[in-house]
Automatic annotation (TrEMBL):
GO cellular component: plasma membrane
GO MF annotation terms: mechanosensitive monoatomic ion channel activity
Family: Belongs to the MscS (TC 1.A.23) family.
A Pfam family matched in the record: MS_channel_1st
Recorded topology in the membrane: Multi-pass membrane protein
Subcellular location(s) per record: Cell membrane
Domain Mechanosensitive ion channel transmembrane helices 2/3 positions: 57-98
Protein name, per record: Mechanosensitive ion channel
Species of provenance: Fodinibius roseus
Length: 290
């Protein structure tokens, strides 16, 4: 029976140390997760989802560090040599990981400035997506075709970032072209009626119609309509379909590019005569006979 006696292999003190460490881990780990969830929930309700995620990470990593220090104390490991070694290693890592340090500092600026938050829709260098998380090193996005994009914080600090959902309303600019023969006053009335009947269009700010330019083959108008930011895509889809349908009903021409040729000082049309191959051959034969 002495073969299975654990005290034949380790001392009684070591056994008690292992038991104490196991109990500390078993008790502390659930407490850390509970505190993390509590902090995340509290800061999310009081501030925003972004601050909730940040608070949860701070509590979690702080708890893990305290747990490791406690375990090392129970095992009799002195922190002084480790701290000295950590200083030397930290200097070496500082030179080797300048990019990471730059991303961390940039992340702190993002957290302080808060140009966007979790669940916002942003555009970074043409990449449009929903902000999933704002971490110490990078920002994670989910694009609308369900792809995961990781953007380093340093790049975001140096790049123009467009927040598409920062404000509660957003404007859609519909480019409308009509033929030169159309009555612009009538076209304006039709467009305003379309906006009034569209359920996603806001009456305040009211829609605007801007005379954009005399185009190559059309009169170009800029039709500006406002919608709630979460209904903007619905406005974009419906308003253009309704404009096309109403123009068809009112016989308003939406022209396509074409070119007219003129010659002479009076800008008379250039005469064009269609000649068949047989007639051309006969004319050449008559000229030869003469």
């Amino acid at each position: 029976m002495d073969l299975f006696n654990i005290y034949n292999y380790v001392s009684e003190e070591v056994v008690f140390q292992i038991i104490r460490v196991a109990l500390i881990i078993a008790i502390t780990i659930p407490v850390i997760f509970m505190l993390r969830n509590w902090a995340r929930s509290l800061f999310t309700k009081k501030y925003s989802t972004h601050y909730g995620m940040l608070a949860g990470k701070v509590v979690f990593y702080s708890g893990i560090i305290i747990l490791l220090i406690t375990i090392m104390g129970q095992l009799g490991i002195s922190l002084a040599p480790l701290l000295a070694g950590a200083g030397i290693v930290g200097v070496a890592l500082g030179f080797a990981s300048q990019t990471s340090v730059s991303n961390i500092i940039s992340g702190l600026f993002l957290i302080a400035e808060q140009p966007f938050k979790v669940d916002d829709i942003i555009n970074v260098n043409g990449t449009i997506g929903i902000v999933m998380s704002i971490d110490v090193l990078s920002v994670k996005l989910r694009t609308f075709d369900n792809m995961f994009v990781r953007i380093p914080n340093e790049m975001i600090i140096k790049t123009e970032v467009i927040n598409l959902t920062r404000f509660p309303i957003r404007r859609f600019n519909a480019k409308v072209s009509v033929a030169y023969r159309e009555d612009i006053g009538k076209v304006r009335e039709i467009l305003m009626e379309v906006a009034q009947k569209n359920k996603y269009s806001l009456s305040e700010p009211e829609p605007q119609i801007i005379f954009e330019a005399f185009g190559t083959s059309s009169i170009d108008l800029d039709f500006r309509i406002w919608a709630q930011v979460n209904e903007w895509i619905h406005l974009k889809n419906t308003i253009q379909e309704e404009i096309k349908k109403r123009f068809d009903e009112e016989d308003i021409e939406i022209p396509f590019p074409h070119v007219s040729l003129y010659a002479g000082s009076e800008s008379k049309p250039l005469p064009i005569e269609m000649v068949t191959k047989a007639a051309t051959l006969q004319k050449e034969a008559d000229e030869t006979a003469d």
